[in-house]
Model the fold of this input.
Amino acid sequence: MNWKVLAAGALIVIPLVTVLAMGFGQDPRALPNVMEGRTAPQFHLSDLDGMQSYDLAELAGKPVVLNFWASWCVPCAQEHPWLIRTAQQYEPRGVVFLGVLYGDEAVNGKAFLKRNGHAFPTLLDPGGHSALDYGVAGVPETFVISPQGQIVHKFVGPIEPDLMTELLERML
Done:
């Protein structure tokens, strides 16, 4: 056996395995989010039917919950009923809920909403430009935006209902 080759391989593999193993104990959702505390990026997007457009600037003065989701996303389907109930509870109090279809086709989004119900508009993001502006890396990701247009919190993965309720109550 060639000991030099084995030693060289070990010098490469051992540090690599060590670096990778250090990340196993960390929750990726616990990483700081650089978007929190910043002004929410502006968007001008149309709904799934292309009949109505939504502009974040026109929502100034209202809290906004912006949920990026997809029809193929299992965690999105799991949080969807809670989002519907929360929208029904908080929209009469002035909170605007908007969904943004991410990496999916309008026809799939419409079918999902027909099967699972909906309580707020879902918007199309052609080319994913708004998702890029918000730093979305996957779905679901949900942004809570203050009436002043600041990102108060970003949920990576399914929403934590208690925290979402607390954030909305603080803004009202």
Observations:
- The chain has one domain: 35-171.
- Residues 117 and 158 are 18 Å apart (CA to CA).
- The mean pLDDT is 90.
